[in-house]
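Hi L.,

You mentioned the student needs an example of a multi-chain input paired with its predicted structure. This one should do, with 861 residues in total across all chains.
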Amino acid sequence: MPIRDHQGITISEFNGLWLRGDPDSTPLDHFSAGNNFDFVGGSSVRTRPGVGISQSVAVPLSNVKRVYNYPTQTANTLIALTYDGTSGRIYHVINSTTVYGPILTIVGMTDFAFQPYAGRGYISPFGDYTNGELIFQKGLQNEFLYVYAGDGTAARKAAGAAMAGSMTIANGAAGHTDPGFHIFGFVSQTVSGYNSPPGVLTSFTTSVASSVSFGSIPTSGDPNVVKRLLVATKVIPSFSGDLSAYQFFFVPGAVINDNVTTALNNISFYDADLLADASHLLRNLTQIPAGESLALYHNRLCLACTYTDISLIYVSQVGEPEAFDSISGLIVVPLDGNPITNQQEMRDVFYVFKRSRTVSYTDNGDDPSSWPLVPVDTSLGTCPHGVATVLDSGGSGVDFLLIASYQGINMFNGRYVVPELSWKVEDYWRNLDRNGFGRIQMVNVPTKKLILCVLPSRNILVANYANGMDMNKIRWSKWSFFMGLNCIAVQNVDSIILGADYG
Amino acid sequence: MANGSYLLIIKDVATSSGPEAWSTDSGSLFTAISLNDGNRIRANLGALTGTYLIHFDLDTSIVIFDDTLSTGGLSWVGTWNILTAYSAFAGEINVVLYSGQYYRALGNSTGSQPDISPADWKLIQHQTVAGLQSGFNVLTGRLHIMNWTRTGSGGGWYAQFDSLTESTEFTGFAGADDTFDYVTIPTTMLNLVNNGCGLRVLGLPTNFFKFDQQYVEGTYNIISTGWTLPLTTVKAGDKVTLTSISNLAQGVTGVQFGTQPTKVASQDFLEQTPTQITFYMPEFGNVTGPLSVSVVGNGVQFSGTVLLGPLTVLFVDASGIYVLTNLKPSDTLYDRTTPGATVEVAIQDPTIETAFLP
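Structure written out for the whole complex:
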């Protein structure tokens, strides 16, 4: 055909990658292949933005396996895991020149779950395990939940044991009690507000016109204990012989505000003053096994998928992220041989994910073990880092989640919206190594209208939703890097942080 | 090393006759040896009269059709030499290569140039196709003769494995799928050098054999020497090209390094042709020196994992924490050779490939 008869084809829009079906069927306004391009405005493309270094120090962190944004009380910081082939080390990166740590070193820790809470950071180490050909993640064996104060001091095991030892009790100065047989004890309180189970349980029969004085009170061996609180039973008419078989209450005003003093004198109280129940502390776990997932729901810390129980969720007391009731604080997700991978609150509902299953629980005001289960989806779920974090907060955007499932990147609003957002790149997504889904980590940056998803291949699949967030208008690109990209986080509203390891 | 199966089809058309049909089969005569089906070699045999012999050579991809041959057994003696004495004993009929053509001895001769000595040499029709690629070793083979019929009486046909081994004569009138196994096959058994294998037909001018299809199927293994790896030292992020001397590269679904799981999947290859794959070298750990490279097959071109050999790698630690910087035209990486140093690198090949333009 003569050139003069050739009808020109105008391509006025570039709508990104189209990686589904026969490449020859790629729509004219899409790309059948591409790498390292970015979108400009609604219809143009350019080279992706470059990366710069985050640390301006002589020896920056190396072989970074995971990075989380860590909002402390005063700043937006990062918490990062490095791995030397044997041990994982967690550092607190304050800014480009200041790094604390390692604040925690654990053999075999190749990944960790993290949950900021009231300026502190809760850390749960986990790693890869295999079941047949399936590689999955669960909490490390013989490891625990740790709490980091955020100040550069070493992280320590969350919770703690009851104080041990004995004390003396005697009538004090003139005062008042309901006379009779009581059991007294002390609860130690750590700097993070955790109350231990009552310890140093000692019986004493009080007198009607006397206060009670305590001597030789043990100090806690835990250097993080900052207070000791007196607990007592009401009068026990007939003692069974078991000191811990009774209901304990905090005695108002009976507090030792240090871990040094060994005496507490002249405490007066009536049984009617004993209102704050401390009995539940007796059932608290003194150490919490490490899990693969941490989340907050109704101000409770939820930890899931431990080494021994891959379908179990530990739910803390409200406002007490280290107080896990060993009986009523447990939720067992229906067993199907697959581990819990993720947890996320949205619209007051607590969603729990496995790799191919989603269920929900709703706080009914009672103990977590009584929360009703609602199956949400029996075929779609996600991976350990597969719920997109939104800016520097949690995973829930404006009434929806973005979830990386085996189907693709789905919008989730209580159900998985189909077709998935990644419909245009369906073939590419389906060919991802499922055993590598533990590497997937996703962030949503609304201010830039970007979704960035780190893939098992160490590339980033980028979605630009400047033209709209639906399967037709969203535009996809793929970014690659010289370094082995491994993880992603968002800091300071919309600063995109990338972590790289060397394999 | 990996194993697989192959399929070679010699005939798929039954309407024409004689060897001349080879050149009139509208381009679909021969395609390629198939590994687990797919492309096939096809020879148009048609209704035959007289005596014919077909040889196919899996390794050199040459198919020979030889008419008027009454006894089996071609003996490959190499390129014709003016000083060599050639013969045409039954079962050891000399075959030579001269000026790109194959010739069969019709009698004893010395110094008779094949292309100008029709009394001593007969041109053997042949065609070169995309055959079993180099790097394959044939392990087993089974010849299938499919859907054959005969009109008239007299004559017969034989399945021939080499000059000394052939089946009993088939003199019936029809068959659906007659198979003949190669009990033990040396790796070169299917070469013309060892007289190939094929079908010998003894017919009379009034009789016609019609073979709808004949093919050989069997198993092979792959030897890794069919690949070429970069000789230069490679570090993570470098562009690496692996070259296959055959068409194996198009069947690669992933590349592995050391004992690691698949590191680069085919969808992340920068380029994949029948003979080459190109990709960015992924991270491989903090090792320097030789690192074994394997490719994973798609089960069509080949299956399993094939060890290609060692690649010399250099560990350069560019790991760390980075920040994506808007409008930044290059990537700044940590350079740990000097404390606090950085290195500036260009962003890896920004590319787009538009849709097919009609």
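You could point out the following to them. Residues 319 and 334 of chain B are 7 Å apart (CA to CA). Residues 2-221 of chain B form one domain.

Best wishes,
N.
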